[in-house]
Automatic annotation (TrEMBL):
EC number(s) per entry: 3.1.7.2
Domain ACT: 642-716
SUPFAM superfamilies: ACT-like (SSF55021), HD-domain/PDEase-like (SSF109604), Nucleotidyltransferase (SSF81301), TGS-like (SSF81271)
Keyword line: Hydrolase
Organism for this UniProt entry: Rhodanobacter thiooxydans
GO term, biological process aspect, one: nucleobase-containing small molecule interconversion
Record bears the keyword Hydrolase: yes
Record flagged with keyword Transmembrane helix: no
Protein name as it appears in the record: guanosine-3',5'-bis(diphosphate) 3'-diphosphatase
Pathway given in the UniProt record: Purine metabolism; ppGpp biosynthesis; ppGpp from GDP: step 1/1
Amino acid sequence: HPATVDLSALPPYALALKERVAYLPEAQVDRVLRAFQLGAQAHAGQERKSGEPYITHPVAVAGILAELGLDAETIIAAILHDTLEDTELSRETLAAEFGEVVAELVDGVTKLDKMRFGTRQEADAESFRKMLLAMARDIRVILIKLADRLHNMRTLGAKDAPSRRRIAGETLEIYAPIAQRLGMNKFKAELQDLGFRALYPDRYRVISERIRAALGNRREAMGKIEAALSARLAADHLSARVVGRIKSPWSIYSKMRGDHKSFAQLMDVYGFRVVVDSAMSCYMALGVVHALYKPVDRRFKDFIAIPKANGYQSLHTVLLGPFGAPIEVQIRTAEMDSVAERGVAAHWAYKTDSGPANSAQARAREWLSSLVDSSASTVSSSEFIENVKIDLFPDEVYLFTPRGDILSLPRNATALDFAYAVHTDVGDHAVAARVDKKLLPLRTKLESGQLVEIITAPSAVPNPAWLEVVVTGKARTAIRQYLKHLQHEDAVDFGHRMLDRALDAQGSSLDGIPPAVLDRFLETSKLKRLEELLSDIALGNRMPDVVASQLLASRGRKAGKPHTAAHAHEKIRITGAERGVLSFANCCHPLPGDDIIGYLSSGKGIVVHREECPNVVELRKSPERCVAIEWDRDVQGDYRAELRIEVINRPGVLATVAAAIAAADSNIENVEYVERDAAAATLLFALEVKNRKHLADVIRRVRRTGVVSGAYRYPL
């Protein structure tokens, strides 16, 4: 290729880009211009909704990244970021022309082909997941994506109203929080501002006007405080830059909505940033401002010693000023300020001397590698996105491990989230937590600064109720993974028993099916292993009788006469612990000791009903789905039962009945009045009992209270 590019042939926006990338070596600037020529050729004839040539968009994206001082590869990939999706240009051409790194970056940003997905949401979810995984390989992918989104938001006016709302919602929900998670406050602030303006134009206008009015009234006070701070710092020989800060419309709107505060409460604060030359000067400046104005108790935060999860560092303090309103002051070095504004991108523009523990990059990589783990164990893209959204909560609590390490978790995180943040094995075997030396349950919500130690036991395992307790994506994914594994094991065992019974009834057995026949059947059924077939049967996706007939037919013989041997009529015994495969019907609440029947429900597995359940008549109309089951001799655990109790309506009656139930060692889950008048009332109690005998004991105690005119199991 020619060493230089003909500048006279370049349009003004390309020349503007050349000016912006002047910080790069000359050879790299030529590569950038070469990329522009290739991109302009590839996008020739394409226009944006506004009518401008399409190439103006990628060039603008490259310009945004050039302002951050990024390397040539990122700028080139930004210019070409839409070529793989929207033009004839191939990945091979890109790699040959600009190297593998550029091709990898462009590929990472390119959305997935929409054809492969059932719904738009699914396509968006999958392309978002792909982008996050690509960004885990190279963080520059997300920088290009964020710049792309920022330029799209700046030029949103050309789109129709529904598109504007959808894109703005997605920006506020996903892209602005990602920018914040990567410490890129400048990007985050503009994305939030543009998103808010597009999604709620009226609210944006009202709040913006009120901010302007409030600032006008306070300009003089702001000036006086700024002058006093600057003078005091100079008197103590501290070289510092003091800048006034203004809250953005979106942050005020979010706080009004989330914290239920009024506009006046939020605006009644003066904000300043003090930028000094070294970390030691930050603490000296803190002493100076505390000597000037009195600090507000418990409002000081040291994010220099304990950086935020995205690498942000600063000292925060709140002072009581001369005008009766609090003054919020942030104190930081110029480098910390650069990291706060640019986050992970500061690495390229600002050669950082701070250790890796403080760098936004190291923290971003940590977060991204946890996303990769989560993606590997989450099947659905939508579920993965939900987990990511949970992890993008900006409010964090900072917690200490017994070794003095710091973990940051989202607000409302529990001790169980902490356990999984330490390690999946710790989470899986957790039984309780010691928080600041006090023994507390795993569902305890944690607060910043607490010292948390997790107590584990080798026999402890996750249970489904944990999903209601945790808030982090990592914990949710790990618990689901364990439960799926458990369900699979139970399903394989159960499916084996069901298929054996079905084959037995036709005069054969699973051992009697030659391996070659079994392999052929699995292949035609598109199943990899026998376990998958057995699991499918237990989960109600395949009928055991049908599978048995197909296996015998493919063996080359007809099904034998139904067996008359006693074991052909044997029922499958259940212990109730097969919760991954079994569920208990809400219409009749079967208990150990009841005569029961199983019904194969597709995808749900076996739903257990009592034989006398009114719905069983209907279920028996599909005999191939009915499974003969019975309770095992030794059944553990608690089961839900409902008790209908008629009482004389007088004060204290509910307490008397509840005490009788508790005295019988039963736990009350719920109670409601079904009917009520002046003389009598009917109550419906949902209880946990061990078996029929336990329920009978509860009923006996309730009847003995003397306030009850009738007590019986419901439904009868």
